[in-house]
Amino acid sequence: MVTGGFRTRTFMEEAIASGETDVIGLGRPLCTDPDTPRDLLDARIDKTVCHEDHVKLAQRGFFSPVSPLMPLKIINVLGGQAWYYQQIFRLADDQAVDPELSILKAVGAFVKDEFSRSRAVKKARRGRAG
Ligand SMILES: Cc1cc2nc3c(=O)[nH]c(=O)nc-3n(C[C@H](O)[C@H](O)[C@H](O)COP(=O)(O)O)c2cc1C
């Protein structure tokens, strides 16, 4: 089984045909397009969405993932993860995905979610103790 970077049906078919892998995993494309495997298998699409090309603070230079400043590198990586989480949360809430969501907004929403979840857990624990 291999996961990571598979984006075109041709490449996936070649990987299977070569015997290098029996199963192909998809991660990021499914966060906005969960029907992708079925659409690929039914030949409705030839390639997956590829958000990683734009989910970053900047394409190149100081604010990009190759920034010389570690905090900016970290925001690009964690922000990317937060971006995908936000898309999953939207789907779970029956909302349309938001491919235009900015990485900073995704980070903000993620941090807010984490705090409210942690408050809810503490409240539940207090309730159990009492
Ligand atoms: C929202 C999200 C959550 C993930 N969680 C995990 C995880 O818990 N454990 C893990 O090994 N990989 C995790 N991954 C990594 C994926 O399994 C996968 O290896 C990675 O996204 C590369 O595949 P892709 O190019 O198809 O996205 C996660 C990826 C995303 C986007």
Helix-strand layout with pairing:
Elements: E1 2-3, H1 9-17, E2 24-25, H2 28-32, H3 36-41, H4 70-92, H5 103-129
Flavin mononucleotide binds at residues 3-6, 26-28, 31, 81, 84-85.
Which features does this protein show?
2 strands; two-stranded parallel sheet; 2 domains; 54% helix; 130 residues; binds flavin mononucleotide; mainly alpha
Question: Outline of this structure?
Answer:
With 130 residues, this protein is mostly helical.
Would you kindly provide a written description of the structure presented here, covering whatever features stand out?
This protein has 130 residues and is mostly helical. The protein contains five helices and two strands; from the N terminus they run βαβαααα. The protein folds into two domains: 53 residues, no CATH class; 71 residues, no CATH class. The protein has a two-stranded parallel sheet with strand order 1-2. Helix 4 packs across helix 5. The longest helix is centred in the last third of the chain and has 27 residues. The model has no long low-confidence stretch (mean pLDDT 95). Bound molecules: flavin mononucleotide.
Structural shape: globular
- The biggest beta sheet, please? 2 strands, parallel
Straight-line distance between termini: 48 Å
Structural class: mainly alpha
Q: What is the subunit organization of this protein?
A: single chain
* Helical proportion, percent range: 40-55%
Q: SSE order, as H and E?
A: EHEHHHH
> What share of the residues does DSSP label as strand, in percent?
under 5%
Strand arrangement within the widest β-sheet reads 1-2
